[in-house]
Amino acid sequence: MQVRQNLPLRSLTTFGVAGTSARTLTLERLEQLDALIEALAGSLPFILGGGSNVLFARDLHEPLVLVRLKGRRLLDDGGATILLEVGAGEGWDDTVSYTLSQGWFGLENLSLIPGLAGGAPWQNIGAYGVEAAELIETVQAVHTGTGERRTFSTADCDFGYRSSFFKTADGRRWLITSVRLRLSREPHPRIAYGEIQQELAARAALAAPEVSDESADPTGQPAGSPSPQQVAAAVRSIRRRKLPDPASLGNAGSFFKNPIVSRDDAEPLRVAYPKAPVYPVPDAAHVKLSAAWLIESAGWKGFRDGDAGVSAQHALVLVNHGNATGPQLLALARRIQQSVHDRFGIALEPEPVIVA
Ligand code: EPU
Q1: Which of 32, 89, 121, 124 sits 20 to 30 Å CA-CA off 166?
Q2: Do residues 66 and 147 lie in contact, with contact meaning Cβ atoms separated by under 8 Å?
Q3: Which listed residue (21, 23, 162, 227) is catalytic?
Q4: Residue 254 among the catalytic residues
Q5: Residue 215 pLDDT greater than 70, yes or no
Q6: Mind listing the domains of the chain with CATH numbers?
Q7: Which residue's CA is the nearest one to ligand 1's atom 9?
């Protein structure tokens, strides 16, 4: 197992902020687990995958574990569904593309999400009407204090909106080694999300003059029903259009969760701003508000203070224009929270993990 002292943090997260990790251990193979547990000697490590949902606002004194466990294994392909085990260190989007190329469906709406596969259960990634929790069968993890290895059912994972057991204080003791995904051989396109419908319609309109028998959908879907590949392509183009690419502009995707508030608490906002988006949630007594709308309406979209800013493309994304520090981005996040609270009485909760 590779152990490095005083490693710069900048290239380890998609925010690209500077910092130093005193001691970094890189886990590449399951056979290294015993050595890892021994090296940690009971101390609580910070576990990092692709670093796409983390803001480091200080140096790391605790051990940093980089999870780079690779490998994909087909465990069950007997029927209408398959079970695929994916190492926590596999790229998430690579995994989505791989499954589509194999004719295993379900992940298409989760295309182009940055990060590694271990992050999918960790924060229950979600986009365009689908959450990872719906596709996950089990999560394999190891306790970093005792070395116990355990398989977590979806009930154990306690998935919620961008949350899971692994994000809790007890859960942070567990290092996810792999995730098992239950995928379908039959396409079941999930296109209820309005933006996907618009994108598919626009693409169909563009393609219409060339439609012929030869270009019929190879998955055998009835006319009018998009293939999973078409859904994935639509999601990719929506994301490319709306979200800044972390490879060229540091960011961690949505910086705040969409607030879920009681209907009573949402009422003053609805009355004062009839255009404010309000979405239903399964619990009928509550609704989900749009953090992006709140932030844009408070005047922050495109704001920049030094190299810390708010994306001009999407108000929910904080960006590092180059040399913003973690504390500067955190200070900006606090100003936005205060301003949204003063203006609308709504509390915004950060989505990424903040190490401060
Ligand atoms: N909006 C604005 N200003 C903006 C952008 C959006 O007012 O600059 C409003 C619009 O009314 C828009 C609404 O916000 O209709 C919703 O915007 P969008 O569809 O982009 O979705 P979101 O709620 O901002 C969530 C997730 C994203 C996910 C998309 C699509 C959270 C915190 N974010 O964003 O996830 O890709 O839905 O499903 O739930 C992430 O978690 O990092 C992430 C990017």
Answers
A1: 32
A2: no
A3: 162
A4: yes
A5: no
A6: 2-67 (3.30.43.10), 70-242 (3.30.465.10), 250-355 (3.90.78.10)
A7: 293
pTM of structure: 0.93
Residue-wise pLDDT for 318-344, tens only, equals: 999 999 999 999 999 999 999 999 999
The answer, yes or no, to whether residue 296 has pLDDT greater than 50, is: yes
Å from CA of 332 to ligand 1 middle: 19
For 67-115, write each residue's pLDDT tens digit.
999 999 999 988 999 999 999 999 999 999 999 999 999 999 999 999 9
Q: Is 162 a catalytic residue?
A: yes
Ligand 1: which atom is nearest the Cα of residue 314?
8
Which is it for strands 286-289 and 278-280: parallel, antiparallel or unpaired? antiparallel
Beta strands in the chain (DSSP E): 2-8, 20-27, 46-48, 54-56, 64-67, 72-76, 81-87, 126-127, 130-131, 136-143, 149-153, 174-184, 250-254, 260-262, 278-280, 286-289, 304-305, 308-310, 317-320, 353-355
The token duo for 92 is 């998430």
Closest CA to 233 of 256, 258, 206, 213: 206
| CB-count exposure of residue 41 (10 Å: 0-12, 13-18, 19+) | exposed
**Which tokens belong to 148?**
């116990």
Task: Read off the pLDDT of each residue in 146-172 and give the average, rounded to a whole number.
Answer: 97
| DSSP-based three-state secondary structure for 112 | coil
